[in-house]
Amino acid sequence: MKQSLKAQLRDTKMLTKDPLLFSMVLLIFVSLILFILYPLIKVALVAFSDENGFTFKNFREAFGFWYYRKALFNSLVMASLTAIIGSIVGFIFAYALTRAKIPGKKFFNLIATIPIISPPFIGALAIIMLFGRNGFVSSTILRLPDANIYGFKGLLLAQVITFFPVAYITMRGVLESISPTLEDAAMDLGGNRFKIFYKVTLPLAIPGLASSMLVLFVESLADFGNPMILAGSEYPILSVQAFLEITGMYNLGKGAALAFILLIPSLSAYVIQKYYVSKKQYITVTGKPTDSSNSVVSPAARNILFVVAIFFSIIIILIYASILYGAVATSWGNNSTPTLDHFRYVFRVGFESVKDTIIIAGVSTPISGILGMIIAFLVVRKRFIGKRFIEVTSMLSFAVPGTVVGIGYILAFNSAPLYLTGTLAILLLNFIFRYIPVGIQGGIAVLQQIDPSIEEAAIDLGADSNTTFRKITLPLMVPAFFSGLIFAFVRGMTAISAAIFLVSAKWNFMTVQIMSQVESGRIGAAAAFSVILVAIILVAMIIIKTILRLKYQTTTSLLSN
Amino acid sequence: MSVKLVNITKVFGDHDNVSKEFTAVDNVNIEIYEGEMVTFLGPSGCGKTTTLRVISGFEQQTHGDVYIDGELVNDIPANKRNTSMVFQSYAIFPHLSVAGNIGFGLELKGIKKAEIKKQVDEIMDIMGLQSLGKRRPSQLSGGQQQRVALARAIVNKPRVLLFDEPLSNLDAKLRDTMRTEIRRIQKKFGITSIYVTHDQLEAMTVSDRIMVMDKGIIQQIGTPFEIYSRPDNYFVADFIGRANFFPTTISHVSKEGCACDLFGPSFIFPSFHSSLKAKDKAVVVIRPEGLEIVKEDDSKGLLSGVITQAVYLGSTMEYEIEIKDHDKPIIAISHNPVKEGMYHEGDTVRVSFGPISAHVIRG
Fold first, then answer.
1. Which of B225, B221, B229 is nearest to B356 (CA)?
2. Do strands B193-197 and B160-164 pair parallel, antiparallel, or not at all (unpaired)?
3. What is the distance between the alpha carbons of residues B234 and B245, in angstroms, rounded to a whole number?
4. Mutate to test the interface with A, among B54, B95, B165 (most CBs of A within 10 A)
5. Is the previous residue joined to A417 through a cis bond, with omega within 30 degrees of 0?
6. Options 1.10.3720.10, 3.40.50.880, 3.40.50.740, 3.40.50.300; which CATH number does A2-44+348-560 get?
7. Smaller CB count within 10 Å for chain B: N or C?
8. Range of the domain at B338
9. What is the pLDDT of residue B78?
10. Of the residues B189, B218, B234, which one is the last residue of a structural domain?
């Protein structure tokens, strides 16, 4: 132990010889503590105290109330079901696309990744438009009187649609890394197709499936947009109740207590995923994925997969079609005469929020990306005391529900010296630190592929670590940087759970605007807003991809990472 | 420029677990003289690369001192040591052109563009890289990449040139060419060089001296001749080339060497490095080419045996011969099979050796 401490001190001593690197590490340390840890600690502090100091009162009061106990129960049930169903649907899509030679692979891939680039509650909005009281399917086609999609089933559908693409992308990666030669070998040894799937493919995919379920569990638990729109008062959800407690009742203590309880299952699932399940994954190939020579999927099974994929594709197409259509229909469900009124309304009422959103996402995304690259570099390539701390803290945002972060920020930054409430800064800081994990992950992945001796060669030729990073490492990380940028931009543009706490009259956010349009029943305006939002994202993606193609001769697929 | 290592020890540790500590380099002392090419040779994991990385500054030694040109460099970071390394993976910057790679170090020194171009062109000429300056590294063959790596290292006029298994990624034929090429360039510029390899033939071809290492410890330092013909111990004799080992006991020691029994009669074998005394356990080392095979009835032969394997290799012939009372078959190489006559598997032969072709080490 003494020896190891000495070794750490020695590494740190080496670091101090490089003043720029040292100050960078210090700066990152301080900002991670201030903008990630401190707000969370603040949530805990407020949850466990009242004017007299330490207390469990907030928890007793909150969970003494049956409604909040039900909210907790509902949230956990909903997250578990979303995790299971979403992962299964994702797996089916991934299996159908990587193993069964179904027609229209590109089309299905596109369909399964579209929900990722749209605000998470578009599904909820469209589900109301399709299955609600005036819904296209429920009312116009089936002529059901008083269809009620609010509550359990509507929310489950919305969350599965919103989150299965995450499972699809994870599972596609896993299945592609399982060499088809293993299945060929199994077939060669006399296994039938069912046995091959059951004894070879599935066991190899299980760690990936478990990992995907845990990720979906965390995401579903943290989801705010869908339950805000769809849960309704009959089916309370914890993240929404925490929000209402704070912004509706101004009860910070109780809101913090709810947020704290929300944090526990999220963090546990994240820790299990990251430090246990993800280490169990099998890696069976060393080269590029190869095509299977045999078809391991029987024609009957292939047809079933095809039908399931078509079914979900129809739902997704319906969702986007209804959003598009809703944006131009005079009154959804009643009068479908095309009109541009909703867009006019958006530009009259909400133009500011469009501008604000672009500024906030446009400024925070590159900063977050660069910071992410730097942290990735430090974590992969350097040795110093507290490296583990930086690694763990900076990735924490993946696990912490936005609602908790939002509450943490308003609790932490509403008094001097850091009085930031209502400013642009608080929104920027929130977005920068919320999306650094995206950059870090991309950066780490690419750094692990860059031979360390390339950087050593630069140092050997006389470059200090700053020059090495600037002239060698950074240029090699550029493609990863940009693809991380797209991803962070999309997440930033479509985020709501934390932003909704931090917006003000001066700085508003599109997603929050869409939400308030939905709440006041202006479905058309909400749809028009959503169309504009997705359009901005698409334009940004095209710009970044063009830069990459022209300047760096590389293409990057957002949707493949 | 000389390099001096004094009591260099490197312990790799798990930061959280002392029991996982591992001594990669154990008390290494060597001085490499100006203009000399010294090879660190040993099996993988013997500490040779770690020692090299300590000299370059990429690893910080746990104990000991590194001197370059008489200057203590322990606290000088890698980028200020003015050593240049040629990496196993070449470590060519993939986003820079060939000329950009070679000129990288000069550019860092703030040298004027025109001067950089002149020096880069010059070194590219010497290295046979003419007209490749604008190429991307991905457009180069393995051999060309190797030359770029070498040119990039040399153009900075480093105090010491370090080679980390530079040829291990090349095919056999190219390896032969590059080996001589490296030696030629090193001699031409007279740069003090340290070369790490696990390939003994490579070590023999390029080095002035060889330092053989095993398990972090120096086994022997010497010229290629000394290492091959007078190995200090069993490890060196076994690692460098092939050898036959005959365990024995020393009966007495004299000026001429050590007297010991070998399959009956007593011989006097030379001994070079060991402090052997009478009654010590010892091993007689004889290289395969030191043995001569003669016909069964030839009185010159000392040991009688049966050939169990005969392999014809063109210029040489290799035999494995089973000898009574000796557990391992002995290996003999005939360098002129046509003239000396060929034997076949199953032939009974006699084997002879002159005491000069053998020597004794500690058993």
1. B229
2. parallel
3. 9
4. B95
5. yes
6. 1.10.3720.10
7. C
8. 242-362
9. 87
10. B234
CATH number of A70-223+272-338: 1.10.3720.10
Query: What value, to the nearest 5°, has the Cα angle with vertex A165 and ends A161 and A168?
Result: 130
**pTM of the predicted model as reported, rounded to 2 decimal places:** 0.73
B34, B108: one domain: yes
* Token pair 């959804």 in the structure block, residue: A332
| Tokens describing residue B141 | 């063959």
Q: Which of B234, B251, B271 is the last residue of a domain?
A: B234
> For B351, phi and psi rounded to 5 degrees?
-120, 135
Probe site for chain B from A382, A461, A469, A470 (most B CB atoms < 10 A): A461
Q: Which two tokens stand for residue A444?
A: 């780490």
pLDDT along chain B (363 residues), means of 10: 92 68 91 94 92 92 92 90 89 88 89 92 89 86 89 91 88 86 90 93 92 94 91 90 87 82 75 75 88 80 85 88 83 82 85 80 81
B335 C-beta neighbours (distance < 10 Å), count = 10
Q: Give residues 68 to 107 of B whose Cβ lies within 8 Å of A.
A: 77-80, 82-85, 87-89, 91-95, 104-105
| CA–CA separation, A145 and A134 (whole Å) | 9
Q: Which residues of A touch B (CB under 8 A)?
A: 1, 3-4, 7-8, 10, 14, 17-18, 451, 453-454, 456-465, 467, 471-472, 475-476
Q: Name residue B38's beta-bridge partners.
A: B194, B209
* Pairs from A202-206 (Cβ < 8 Å, separation ≥ 24): A204/A174, A204/A178, A204/A282, A204/A284, A205/A91, A205/A171, A205/A174, A205/A175, A205/A178
Which strand (E) or helix (H) includes residue B253? strand B244-254
**What pLDDT is recorded for position B218?**
94
Are B41 and B64 within one domain?
yes
